[in-house]
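Record passed on here:
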Amino acid sequence: MGARAAWASCDAFALLDACPVRAPGLRVLEEERADERGALVTAPPRLGLVDGWRPDALVDSVTLHLVRLLDGATTLEQAVEAAAAAYDLDLDDVLPGALVAVRSMLEDRLLRLPHPTA
């Protein structure tokens, strides 16, 4: 089953119960760059695969924290709750964006569903 078919068959509740896992070769790029005055500024984190043939995905800090929690044993719901708590955010504010981001990362094959739910 392709990545799109795997997540497309999951409604939001099924996806929250799933245990996504980071794709082999997933890399996190976090870097600082000098601005016009020479001060170091943190660039937004990016996710990519070591194969290098697809563009990196820009993510925010909460999404990056979420991705780091997705180990194939942690449900998406548990990871979203932990990421929201880590940043002292309301779960209802984090959940919609997390679902969109995870679906996108599944489609881009940055995440995988080891056992897709139907």
